[in-house]
Design a protein that fits this description.
binds magnesium ion; about 10% strand; 12 strands; two-stranded antiparallel sheet; alpha+beta; 6-stranded antiparallel beta sheet; binds adenosine monophosphate; single chain
């Protein structure tokens, strides 16, 4: 564009006209060819932007306006390849519900490339629902709009709750139908992750006896996620130890908000320790440790209370893949791996109790704290008390908010006496304690009925207002707003039996 002085000037409008610029630097695509398949996303009929995550775009150093431009939307739909992008579908294996599948891989996702964000952290930008790949098996490579918006809502809610997670950069409607139990509108999610490397990625090389691939992958992960493991006496052992800590802390965080992932297969277990692959996940309302939402989880393998055990199981599978890197002698390698794995329970227990103490307003540690917490949980389980509302309602000076959730008020009352005795041993003024508790006990979580209502409005009436409102509520989960009381309530009884489906 010519300005008054006749010089060519690049301003924002003209930048948008040529589409967004990504400073891609694709470290995974520089790994050997057997780590992935190179292919472009399959173009879609009529891309239309549903949602762009402006704050995330900016954190990634991207121009949100350019991303939302027609050229940007074409990139987000997979119809156009951005400069510097090297699209690949990643190879991985995995245990699905305990059964090993030697080849899974990105069957409906394509990694566009990596960018280094404003904080210096390398992030994957991936399209999910971008068409078939060599890993699609019988799948169509596509995603329906419902699960795409669901992942958008829940992953952004997790971010606001301070829980490590992949994030959602954009959702684009494809203008094409996808065929599930019914015909649904298709969509593509642009997802951002620290990486998409899974326990299953290591299993892919281990099952093939590909030691060289394994070592390259482990070195890549150390460089990318755990650089100080490089300086340890035994770097691969240090890698295992660090992944154990991250996963233990992650699952403790899930437990502290009542989050149920729903499909904790080893291919959905991130080496970077982020929550990944939102499928049949949901937050529980009434506290019931055996809660399962997923329609395909018949045995309750991935029930709420099983999550730490399953995480430990997944980490054992990870440890097995590392054996050739841990020691030349297999028995010695197994001993090392088991020693590392034995620390899981401790890391998990400490992370859980640290979080529990904060939820209960405890500022120091006492022996009896775990029993105190368990006492409340037992009473909640018996009463079917709402998990989120109970913790949010706890108050050093008043039982008004919590009592109505217990049919047998005496049960809660007895616990509350013990709790206040405990509080009195580390005195703090009530306002300070209340503020500390409210900073960790969310008022708002993605309640299943609210998520469903937002999706239904978007799908059936092309009305995105409830989706936008829900995102705005969940972006500030600890900040109670009187006008939003409805969002803090559990589902009305008609919704109480809730089922989630995998078909994202
Ligand atoms: P998930 O458990 O949903 O993370 O997916 C497990 C495996 O199934 C992964 O390899 C996915 O890429 C693949 N998959 C799931 N849905 C589809 C689909 N619609 N088309 C192709 N592959 C799929
Ligand atoms: Mg998966």
């Amino acid at each position: 564009m010519a300005n008054d002085s006749g010089l060519i000037q690049l301003n924002e409008a003209s930048a948008a006209a040529v589409g967004p610029a990504f400073a891609f630097d694709n470290s995974y695509a520089r790994l050997p060819e057997r780590f992935y398949a190179r292919l472009d996303p399959t173009p879609v009929a009529a891309p239309r932007l549903i949602k762009i995550n402006t704050a995330l775009a900016e954190a990634l150093g991207l121009d949100a306006a350019a991303l939302a431009s027609p050229q940007g939307v074409e990139i987000l739909a997979g119809n156009r390849i951005a400069g510097g992008s090297q699209p690949i579908a990643l190879a991985y294996a995995g245990h699905q519900f305990g059964n090993f599948v030697p080849q899974l891989g990105d069957g409906r996702a394509i990694l566009l490339g990596e960018v280094v964000d404003r904080q210096g952290v390398r992030r994957d930008i991936q399209l999910k629902g971008s068409g078939p790949t060599p890993f699609s098996r019988r799948g169509d490579g596509r995603a329906a709009i419902g699960p795409v918006l669901r992942e958008y809502i829940v992953s952004e809610a997790m971010t606001a709750l301070g829980i490590p997670t992949t994030r959602s950069l954009a959702a684009v409607a494809t203008g094409e139908p996808v065929y599930r139990e019914t015909t649904l509108p298709g969509a593509v999610l642009a997802r951002v992750a620290s990486s998409h490397i899974r326990v299953g990625t290591f299993q892919f090389f281990a099952v093939r006896g590909d030691r060289e691939g394994l070592r390259l992958l482990a070195d890549h992960v150390i460089d990318r996620h755990y650089p100080n493991a490089r300086d340890a006496a035994e770097p691969y052992r240090a890698l295992f130890d660090r992944v154990i800590v991250r996963q233990a802390e992650l699952v403790a965080k899930w437990m502290l908000v009542g989050f149920i992932h729903g499909v904790m297969n080893t291919d959905n277990c991130s080496i970077a320790g982020e929550t990944i692959d939102y499928g049949p996940c949901a937050f529980m309302d009434a506290y019931k440790p055996d809660t399962v939402f997923s329609s395909i989880d018949h045995g309750g393998r991935y029930a709420y209370a099983n999550q730490p055990r399953i995480c430990h199981w997944n980490l054992a599978r990870f440890g097995e893949t590392l054996l050739p890197l841990l020691a030349d002698d297999t028995d010695q390698a197994v001993a090392i791996a088991n020693e590392s794995l034995a620390a899981f329970q401790d890391h998990y227990g400490r992370a859980l109790m640290a979080g529990m103490r904060r939820k209960l307003g405890l500022f120091d540690e006492e022996e009896g704290d775990a029993a105190l917490a368990q006492g409340l949980l037992d009473a909640m389980a018996e009463a079917g008390a709402d998990f989120t509302k109970t913790f949010r309602g706890l108050d050093p000076e008043s039982d008004d908010k919590v009592e109505p959730m217990f049919a047998d008020v005496a049960k809660y009352g007895a616990w509350a006496v013990a709790w206040r005795q405990r509080l009195a041993r580390k005195p703090r003024d009530a306002a300070t304690r209340r503020a500390a508790m409210q900073a960790v006990n969310p008022a708002y979580i993605p309640r299943n009925h609210k998520v469903e209502a937002a999706l239904a409005a978007a799908i059936e009436h092309e009305n995105l207002a409830p989706f936008e409102e829900l995102l705005a509520v969940l972006a500030r989960p600890y900040e109670e707003r009187a006008s939003l009381a409805d969002y803090a309530e559990p589902a009305p009884p008609a919704h109480a039996v809730y089922r989630t489906f995998c078909g994202t």
